Amino acid sequence: MFSVVLAFALLFMPQVVQSPATEDATACAVDVSAQMARPWSDFEFDHEKPGGPMALAGRGCYRAAADISRDYLARGPLLGVREQAITQLHRARNLAYSGDEAAAAQAAASARRSDQRTDQEIPLDWNSYVQGLYGFLIKDRGLLEANRERLMARAREGFEGDAMNSRNLSALSACFDRSYTQAMTEATCWADGAKSAPP
To answer: Residue 166 and residue 144: Cα distance in Å, rounded?
Structure first.
């Protein structure tokens, strides 16, 4: 449980600090068979074990991280709705950081959830965040703004997870015409986004 909460905290921290993207064959090498055998929570959230998506992304191997997540969805253990959605969202973000926002949008389109969130999860409007991200990736400002406003309203009701996510979408809104990587990492995007995000 702690690792899941930590991963979400890292996911929604203001002004994300990311490693520069690389496709170096040595740094980004993966033993695919070994990854397919890992339990989902270990595979998805462990930052240290080589070859997992978090460890690869930490090295800037965003394309390799997205590819191993794709392989895990197709060849690893069968996942429930929650697990598939989380893996698809992380895959979308890694694809976006790799510069492939079209593929990222396809992954994000599969990241919504039809199940009810459990009491062990951080209370937040998952689907609105995913739709807002998708809106940014396909350059549909109306979709981004509608979901950003929905999260801002929930943030004003005290939902901390939605407050963090609304800040994330606000940065994407402030730098709507830039790349995902620029919007997530450039200080001006967060400064401008903070003007319209809840405290």
So the answer is: 10
DSSP states of 167-182 as a string? HHHHHHHHTTTS-HHH
Instruction: Quote the tokens at residue 187.
Output: 């200080």
Scanning 18-140, the segments in alpha helix (DSSP H) are 32-36, 40-45, 53-58, 62-75, 81-97, 101-108, 126-137
- Cα separation, 128 vs 112, in Å, equals 9
Please check whether residue 52 is in contact with residue 46, taking contact to mean a CB–CB distance below 8 angstroms: yes
- The domain boundary, picked from 97, 115, 133, lies at 115
Confidence of residue 173 (pLDDT cuts 50, 70, 90): very high
User: What is the rounded CA–CA span in Å between residue 180 and residue 176?
Assistant: 9
Q: How many domains does the chain have?
A: 2
Residue 9 has what pLDDT?
Answer: 42
Task: Please give the residue range of the domain that contains residue 144.
Answer: 123-199
User: Cα angle vertex 163, ends 55, 90, to 5°?
Assistant: 25
State pTM to two decimals.
0.88
Per-residue model confidence as pLDDT tens digits over 92-106: 999 999 999 999 999
Going by the DSSP 8-state scheme, the letter that residue 157 receives in this structure is T
- Residues 111, 128, single domain; the answer is no
Please name the amino acid found at residue 97.
Answer: Y
- Residue 144: closest CA among 134, 152, 154, 132: 132
Select from 115, 139, 161 the last residue of a domain.
115
Considering the domain architecture, whether residues 145 and 185 belong to the same structural domain is answered as yes
